[in-house]
Design goal:
By secondary structure, this protein is α/β, with parallel strands linked by helices. The chain is 32% helix and 21% strand. It has helices at residues 15-26, 46-52, 64-68, 84-91, 99-106, 120-134, 167-170, 205-213, 289-304, 309-318, 346-355, 374-378, 395-402, 417-431, 453-472, and strands spanning 7-11, 30-35, 56-59, 72-75, 96-98, 111-115, 138-142, 160-164, 188-191, 224-228, 244-249, 257-260, 266-270, 276-280, 327-332, 335-339, 360-365, 385-391, 408-410, 437-440. Helix 13 links the parallel strand 18 and strand 19. Helix 14 packs across helix 15.
Length: 473
């Protein structure tokens, strides 16, 4: 579709909506920006930019009439596909596309997509570092922070786009013939894992997995599909797509891909032509089997994308964990404080508990996403959990489930997130003993008390450091 003089409505004016709007306006389209927030709550400077560029503004609701009068609708990932405006647009065969899908469809260079319930950011960062170290031209974009639309101008046929892709973004990749652009094609697509998450948006884990599996529909026989051999939940979609296969995990002999040594001290790569490479994990600093799986996947992606083995090995030794992902914040009188605020589902909390070889006091809770928390009670059979501090809207639910197997302290309220987190850290410290670890690993979203998981994590870090300074004094 040629965008010049077309009417394009953009739903959702967060980071991705703003990036899409700026690029689409540059293509000569007539744009309307629509957001549920009142105008005073729009991002700083956006209203002025709209007025300066003749962009229409719609607030408080996504109007059906606006969508039906559009030639194209571009949707931010946080907007559910079943809202009335989008259902009406689909009924009238008006093209609907996500910001990432639109940008990917016009991207000139190779596309690499990385999806999964957990580990997407770490894997994307690893690939980014490996390609950067190797001098391979690329950008890192998508769910990791910067929308792909922001990089469209100025890239070349050689520029690789390394994309962290969520299920919400994949929901708006084309599934029908009404898509108005050439569908994107992923030279490499990796599916890390699948665990229950976002069940407040998806009917069940099958429909959630169906959304992620879509990535493999945008590949041909000459492309590469990389999957976690050890994740049984992925077997439902084992035959999805036409791309060549590589795997990672504890592989059977003869299976091409990245094989983890049982000692977790090395990764052996066997390529499809039966050639081998070996990577020593000495110097690798991230905790947990799940992070070694992320590394194995990143090695496969990076080598296929042109990074040399020397660059890959250099990153293995130097890479540091992303913020709020089992991040060691401070050590206080023999107690380690870990910020794992990004752990917004049960599976990621279980990974954290399995990765720490110390007795643990867990801080858990927030806004629920439709998950069952029973497996967190079962984990006490494997990990030593001294107790749990429960917070947020799900505090009562966690208290009921975890209280059967461990001491539980409930911190009431949701209005002042920083104050509540400070109390939670203090109470966790009172339960802990020297040699223990206190972990903020909530299993929930942050939206009951914080704007995002980053601000929740920083509240934990501030509280842990403040407590440490008081005890030092």
């Amino acid at each position: 579709m040629e965008l010049k003089d077309k009417k394009v409505t953009i739903l959702g004016m967060g980071v991705s909506g703003q990036a899409a709007a700026r690029w689409i306006v540059s293509q000569g389209a007539r744009v309307v920006c629509s957001d549920l927030n009142v105008l005073e709550e729009w991002p700083h400077g956006l209203t002025r930019w709209c007025h300066q560029n003749g962009v229409g503004i719609e607030t408080k609701k996504h109007n059906i009439e606006t969508c039906l009068s559009s030639d194209l609708i571009v949707v931010s990932p946080g907007i559910p596909p079943d809202i009335p405006a989008l259902e009406a647009a689909n009924k009238h065969k008006i093209p609907v596309v996500g910001e990432m899908a639109l940008a990917a469809s016009v991207w000139k260079g190779p596309l690499i997509g990385i999806t999964g319930t957990n580990g997407k950011t770490t894997t994307t960062m690893l690939v980014d570092d490996m390609l950067k170290t190797a001098g391979v031209p690329h950008v890192s974009a998508g769910n990791i922070g910067t929308p792909l639309s922001a990089f469209i101008e100025g890239h070349t046929d050689e520029t690789i786009a390394v994309l962290e892709i969520s299920s919400f973004q994949l929901d708006y990749f084309p599934r029908t013939r009404y898509f108005a652009f050439t569908p994107p094609r992923f030279k490499i697509a990796a599916w890390l894992n699948l665990a229950p998450d976002h069940l407040d948006r998806y009917q069940n884990i099958k429909s959630y997995g169906d959304s992620k599996a879509v990535i493999h529909d945008f590949q041909g026989p000459g492309d590469w599909s990389i999957r976690n051999m050890n994740d049984k939940a992925l077997k439902t979609w084992k035959d999805r797509g036409r791309a060549r296969r590589l795997y990672f995990g504890m592989l059977r002999p003869g299976v091409p891909g990245a094989c983890l040594d049982t000692s977790l001290k090395k990764i052996d790569i066997m390529w499809s032509d039966n050639t081998w490479e070996k990577y020593d994990l000495e110097g690798w600093s991230l905790k947990g089997l799940h992070n070694i799986e992320n590394l194995a996947c990143a090695i496969l992606i990076s080598r296929l994308a042109g990074a040399g083995a020397i660059a890959v090995k250099s990153v293995i030794r130097s890479f540091k964990t992303a913020h709020h992902r089992l991040q060691l914040v401070v050590q206080n009188r023999g107690i380690d404080y870990y910020d794992d605020s990004k752990a917004t589902n049960v599976a990621s909390v279980l990974c954290a508990l399995e990765s720490i070889n110390q007795p643990i006091v867990l801080i858990v809770g927030g806004r629920g996403k439709g998950e069952d928390y029973a497996s967190l009670a079962d984990v006490t059979k494997k990990a030593v959990v001294r107790g749990a501090i429960v917070i947020g809207e799900e505090a009562k639910t966690f208290e009921k489930i975890l209280g059967k197997v461990m001491p539980v302290v409930k911190v009431h309220g949701t209005k002042d997130g920083k104050k509540i987190m400070k109390k939670a850290v203090e109470k966790a410290t009172s339960l802990a003993e020297p040699g223990d670890a206190i972990i903020l690993s909530p299993a929930c979203s942050s939206f009951d008390m914080f704007e995002n998981y980053e601000k929740r994590g920083m509240a934990f870090q501030d509280a842990a450091r403040e407590l440490n300074n008081l005890l030092i004094e």
